[in-house]
From TrEMBL:
The lineage of its organism: Bacteria, Pseudomonadati, Pseudomonadota, Alphaproteobacteria, Rhodobacterales. Belongs to the bacterial ribosomal protein bL32 family. This is Large ribosomal subunit protein bL32. One of its GO terms (cellular component) is ribosome. InterPro entries: Ribosomal_bL32, Ribosomal_bL32_bact, Ribosomal_zn-bd. Keywords: Ribonucleoprotein, Ribosomal protein. HAMAP family: Ribosomal_bL32. It comes from Paralimibaculum aggregatum.
Length: 85
């Protein structure tokens, strides 16, 4: 059998400096096909049936505290913290 030539042992410094190099160039088509699922989607929002503010679907309304037709969270009224009374 034929024996393979052994390469000289590498120094640790050379191993740290070596970087990965692509074997073949990636075409524009392949690159864009890979990126086709990376696009951002707009956030969908629903109108709160109680107060009419926009809210995320399946979330408690931030302005009135209602979810599915009933009050889940007590929302504090606008307080004027500047008053000393």
């Amino acid at each position: 059998m034929r024996q393979r030539r052994q390469s000289p042992p590498r120094r640790e410094e050379e191993l740290e400096e070596s970087m990965a190099v692509q074997q073949n160039r990636v075409t524009r088509s392949k690159r864009n096909m890979r990126r086709s699922h990376d696009s951002l989607t707009a956030v969908s929002s629903n109108e709160c049936p109680n107060c009419g503010e926009l809210k995320l679907p399946h979330h408690v309304c931030g302005s009135c505290g209602y979810y599915a037709g009933r009050e889940v969270v007590n929302v504090a009224q606008d307080l004027d913290l500047d008053d000393d009374s």
